[in-house]
Amino acid sequence: MKITFLASPRPAAQEALEQFVCRYGQSSVSGADYVVAIGGDGTALKALHALLEGSAKPVFPMRTQGSIGSLCNPLQLSDLMDRLIKAIPVDLPVLQADVERLGGERTTVFAINEIVLTRQRLQQARFKLTVDGGSAPATIAGDGLALVTPLGSTGYNQSLGGPRLPLGSHLLALTGIALTPRFPWHRSVVHDHIILDIEVVEPEHHPVQVETVVEIVPGIRRARLSCSGHCKATLLLDREVLNSLTAFHGQIC
Q: What is the pLDDT along the chain (253 residues), one digit of tens a residue?
């Protein structure tokens, strides 16, 4: 069994990293069977993001003392091999935004938690939103929009008043950010096959950026948001951790 260990730069995580590598060795990511991420939720998400466009490897996150780690397993040096074998895999949907910027440059970004389109200045942004290729786009105005996975639905999305989604469901949340006036769907639950085409109105004067946990793309003209068909992310959780997450999010579908 080959393992790649990754860790937060914080001292406690770096100390744990040295201990794990000393006991279990360190493999390259390409040759590893598992990736163990030591730190907190942010470290786990960064590890999942780093693996999206390469070889899909399951990530077993462990929480160091003092870190926020609701998605993480307890830190324990012993019995790691046995824990990895017994861990429950949770397949996570991966969001994708195909973005065109003002200068015509095109780029694609991915997200595990949410993709957020948000204004860059202290003035409203305006969007034309088309769902699944429909012929009648809705024009909306406000601070932005968020497309959110079940894993991300209890974070920023909830602070926006968005719905909590069951972990493991085939659902996404589409949540408006300070829309005026509020539209009936400003806190909607949609299926994960949805395709959202978003055009920014007057992007030169009302600039908008795309944000994920690890990336920001400013000055966008339009974006297509969907679930990725080829990127995969798998989280490995101890049974006890999965049970607590399931109780928090709702029953796995």
A: 899 999 999 999 999 999 999 999 999 998 999 999 999 988 999 999 988 876 679 999 999 987 777 789 999 999 999 999 999 999 999 999 999 999 999 999 999 999 999 999 988 999 999 999 887 788 889 999 999 999 888 888 888 888 888 888 889 999 999 988 766 667 889 999 999 999 999 999 999 999 998 899 999 999 999 998 888 899 999 998 888 777 665 544 4
pTM of the model: 0.86
Q: What is the dihedral of CA 130, 225, 176, 104, to 10 degrees?
A: -80
Q: Which amino acid is at 81?
A: M
- Spatial separation of the C-alpha atoms in residues 111 and 89, rounded to whole Å: 19
- Catalytically annotated residues: 41
Tell me the DSSP string of 52-101.
TTS----EEEEEPTTS--TT-EEP-STTHHHHHHHPEEEEE--EEEEEEE
What is the C-alpha to C-alpha distance for residues 4 and 169, in angstroms, rounded to an integer?
29
- 199-211 CB burial, b ≥16 within 10 A, e <16: bbeebeebbbbbb
